[in-house]
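re the bet — no i am not wrong, look at it urself. input seq straight from the record:
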Amino acid sequence: MPRVLKKFFLRKKNNIELLLSTNSKSERAVIFSKMGLYRTILANPEYKNTYPYIISLYACGYSEQAKVSLDKYIKTESFSKNKVHFILSILPFDKDVAYSLLDKSFDVLSIANILSQRNDLKELSDFLLSLDKKAFKAKPELYLLYNFITRDTNSKLNNLNRYLVSYHLDKIELLDLKGNLFVTNLKNKELRLRKLVNDSLPLVSIIVTTYNSQEYIISTLLSLVNQTYPNKEIIIIDDNSKDATIDIIQNMMSRYSFIRLIKLERNVGTYVAKTIGTLLSKGEFVTNNDSDDWAHPRKIELQIYPLLKNPKLVVSFSKWIRLKDDGTFYARAVSPLTRFNPSSALFRKKDVIEKTGLWNLVRTGADSEFNARLKLVFKDQYVMVNKPLTIGAHRENSLMTAKDTGYSPNGISLTRLQYWESWNYWHINAIKNNISLIIRENLAYPFTVPKEIMVNKDDILFCFEQFGIPKRKLVLN
């Protein structure tokens, strides 16, 4: 096989296939690390002298033990071979150690992102100013890092627009010129739909779940209303909000006939809400948009285009960047800032419901499992639109950043780690034994779920029955 083709096919293999095809201890440790199966690595003494073991110590909150192991590891030949990947992996958990190990072997973007985490930003400023135009053309994310060293809002907006233009995306503006650069203060110029492959465009249902979202929901909905793709419905499923969210949505509904509101009488979490919204949607295609995310006006247009062009494709995904209220950008992994958007799946509703099912009905973490399942089941039928089509809000009190359910510099929460490993092993065993990977819209979990993120089954049943979802679809454990 030609070398280029061989590399292509190796890239196309997913982590589970790679895991099942090797008996190498070191290779399995690396794959487990890439899959985020840190508890598995720590539980196996065979992996103790590998660099994924140190990464796992950091990820699970054992930073002091990690530093002891690190002091030994940096003296080995393995460290020099795996230095870049290793340091970027520990960066979210120990920025000072990552900085201390930084050298010129790193690419410019990784260096800049690591420097952006320092309290003294002069080194970042000097580094960015030393780069030529070619560096920014090759790594447009560098424009975003200028926002760490400027206080001027217009300059921050210009940096964001330079970044967007490099992806051939239209520029955006501020709603309030005196306000900060943040998702609640973004707008776009009126844009026209570019020519698509079909004259008759299918309906796309955009699912938005809300819970006490009054601060963000207006800008989010306006970003969806102003999508260039014309044939759309916006379905908002409110998860029993106690603030002014409902009033704001109803005001928007009076202006836009394609916005629908579904009010849940009990709080059941975003994934039950997404499932209800999808089952009640009218569109041939379905996608989601979180209530604090701002969608670029061409998001739906660019994601549905490959699916209209190729009827065999079932799912498209896209990327995002996350914005803090001071106009700087954030990624949990620090580098790169441009990452896969876990809420971006746009899919053919009928195919997905029949062949994979929808989300696992838990409180948090189900997007990652759903996306992984889509990629495994529709292995050659999904496409990544390699553009940042969403700007998400980074908030300290979100499910993703909460101490009990999310990520922090002290490690990943035990609950999230347990859930992550549980669904990954369900996937591994299904692929290994050629078992169908499907989740029905029922109350039976196909794998072990930590009790901290379970949803009360009576509440799920109540909400499903509230909207006439047939009882025969609800299977109790």
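see?? Residues 1-12 have pLDDT under 50 and may be disordered. told u. also The radius of gyration is 23 Å. so pay up
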